[in-house]
Write a structure and sequence with these properties.
Elements: H1 3-11, H2 13-37, E1 39-46, E2 49-54, E3 58-63, E4 77-83, E5 86-91, H3 93-96, E6 109-115, E7 118-124, E8 126-133, E9 152-155, E10 161-163, H4 165-169
Parallel strand pairs: 2-10, 5-7
Antiparallel strand pairs: 1-2, 1-8, 3-6, 4-5, 6-7, 9-10
Length: about 180
C-alpha cells in the first residue's frame, strides 16, 4: 500500500468499517466451518510416534533455536526456552509415556500450550500439519505403564495419540518439589 492509498484509507472511516466487517464475517465463517466438520488438530512427531492436540490450546509454534538444560530434574524436562523474553519449561512427552528419551535434534519445534491460564512448552521433532477431523478415537490398550496417563484421550484414525492439554497441565507428575541439600 503506497502513501496515497494509506492516506485515503485513513481519511474514510466508512472504508475501515467495511473492511472490519468483512474480516469479522470471514473469521466467523472459518470458525463455523471448522466446528461443523470436526476439531482442528495440530499433528506432530516425537521419535517414531505421532501425536495430535487441539489447535485452540496451542498459542504458538516455533523452531527450537536454543535451550538451557537443567540439572537434577526429571527426564521429561528438556530445559528452559526463551519465548519472547519469557523463560518457560520445555517438556518431552516420551518419558511420561515410558518411551526412550533422546536429546532435541536440529530442526525440532516448540509448541506453546495454554489452558485456563496455565502454560507449558512441548517438544516436537517435526510438525506434520493441521487437520480438521471428526475425532473417532479408539481407546489405548490398557497396560500397567499407561494406566496413569489420563491426558491421552485415545488413538485417532491416523494412529496418532490424541493429547488433552488441560489434563496434561494438571498431571501431578509435573509438580516437582525442591528439596534443599544440607
Amino acid at each position: 500500500m503506497d502513501a496515497h492509498n494509506l492516506r485515503t484509507f485513513q481519511s474514510h472511516p466508512e472504508l475501515r468499517a467495511l473492511l472490519k466487517e468483512r474480516a469479522r464475517a470471514l473469521a466467523t465463517q472459518d470458525v463455523t466451518n471448522v466446528a461443523a466438520s470436526g476439531d482442528l488438530m495440530i499433528r506432530f512427531r516425537l521419535g517414531d510416534e505421532r501425536y495430535a492436540l487441539p489447535a485452540h490450546c496451542a498459542r504458538e509454534i516455533q523452531p527450537l533455536r536454543a535451550y538451557t538444560p537443567l540439572f537434577g530434574v526429571p527426564s521429561f524436562i528438556v530445559g528452559l526456552v526463551n519465548m519472547h523474553g519469557r523463560l518457560l519449561t520445555c517438556l518431552d512427552l516420551r518419558p511420561l509415556l515410558d518411551l526412550p528419551v533422546t536429546p532435541p535434534t536440529p530442526g525440532s519445534f516448540l509448541i506453546l500450550v495454554q489452558d485456563r491460564g496455565n502454560e507449558l512448552v512441548l517438544l516436537a521433532d517435526s510438525i506434520l500439519g493441521m487437520t480438521t477431523d471428526a475425532l473417532d478415537l479408539s481407546p489405548l490398550p490398557v497396560t500397567t505403564s499407561n494406566s496413569s496417563i489420563s491426558w491421552v484421550r485415545g488413538v485417532d484414525r491416523d494412529l496418532s495419540l490424541v493429547i488433552d492439554p488441560a489434563a496434561l497441565l494438571v498431571d501431578p507428575r509435573l509438580i516437582i518439589e525442591h528439596k534443599a541439600v544440607a
